[in-house]
Amino acid sequence: MEQSKNVLIIVPAYNEEESIGRTLQSLLHTTKASKYNIDICVVNDGSKDRTAEIVQSYPEVKLLNLPYNLGIGGAMQTGYRYAYESNYQIAIQFDADGQHNNEELNTIIEPLKNQEADMIVGSRFVLPTEYRGSSMRRIGIVYFMYLLYALTKQKFTDPTSGFRAINHKIIKEFAHRYPKDYPEPEVLIYLHKKGYIIKEKSVKMQARQGGASSITPFKSLYYMIKVTLSIIMQKVIKE
Questions:
Q1: CB 40, CB 6: distance < 8 Å
Q2: pLDDT-derived band at 132, boundaries 50, 70, 90
Q3: In 3D, which of 201, 220, 203, 206 has the Cα closest to residue 132?
């Protein structure tokens, strides 16, 4: 029987040539010094720039190349499927654009190691931080926070955070089922409905270190409507 592996960091990347090198250097510096056995996987989501070429210059990093752009949901499910098939016990979502703080990996790993929760979400709003996002993003965060609270009675202060860690049980769930578009708020109600324990931990985040966000005001409005309908359907449908 294959020996269980430890922690896998999954970095979804689409046209991130400006920042992916710095992000991987920081992650490798931290993971080599970590007390945990941490591997790194980049899911190149059909990038048209030098993202894959840059990742290949880091032989310690596993590169999964998607031939077409599937979006964040398809890229993350690819990473979760790899984590499940490789028998990792913990998987961490980590943005390629340098917004997440590699020094706070232990903040979201340790509660899972101690079996305090099934998912840990890194939140910018549990405690005051210097984070200042766009007005549209802040509106979306507050909107989904209240929507999810109305449906679950659990307060998620940062439901759109992409810095999160899950245990092996949820890795298996996500390997077989994961939302396609803007999945972060949607999976919270899905997991809550199935009885998984979700907790938030305070983390600091910073502005992206390169490239440009693909989320425009129009796309934000479109996603808010689409994800709202999906979240409500998750609540009312019996499985």
A1: no
A2: low
A3: 206
